[in-house]
Amino acid sequence: MLLLTAAVTTGPAAPAHAAAAPYGAKAVAVAASKQGSPYAYGATGPKRFDCSGLTLYAFKKAGKRLPRTAEQQYEHTLHIPEADRAAGDLVFFPSGATMTHVGIYAGDDRIWHAPRPGTRVRLERIWSSAVRYGRAT
Description:
Elements: H1 2-10, H2 22-33, H3 51-61, H4 70-76, E1 78-80, E2 90-95, E3 98-107, E4 110-113, E5 122-125, E6 132-135
Antiparallel strand pairs: 1-6, 2-3, 2-6, 3-4, 4-5
Helix pairs in contact: 2-3
């Protein structure tokens, strides 16, 4: 009986990387609500966005602060392996040593993002294997 009590009170060991925080789901929902908003370089919403402007806006609405640019956002997040990614994590696209694009992981290998001039916020499959993942802290 003592062993059973000890197992119940201590519970299972914590995983190496915890699941995305509750604000991650809210950030995904906020980004999804901006579907169709036009891309505008340097825009942070609420009607137009660039890539990091969308992530900045979505996380702010979810109660988390992020820096302005994709590179700064990458430096500000906990870097996680692909195997540990969860909806609400950030997906970064490098060009050389610099992060030049960012989106919000929505699950099923898809991200919400503001792709480039002439496009609109949309849900899209991750098109590259050369991505990095970060979790807002």
